[in-house]
Design brief:
The chain is mainly alpha-helical and 63 residues long. It contains three helices and no strands.
Length: 63
Amino acid sequence: MLEYVKTILLKVSFDKMLFEKELRKAFKFLVADELLQLKQWCYDQFSSKYLFIINRVFAKLQP
């Protein structure tokens, strides 16, 4: 499921609202370990473009 979420995020990364919506939806499907992996991947892939969104969405996730 993690790879599927990554694929979706890559496809919607042109639009910040879609990106945030899909990132939030990922919390419904992924377990804690996968969310930590997704968090790191998002920072690696999108921090230059969507840092604020990533910080906001993952703010409640404990390390």
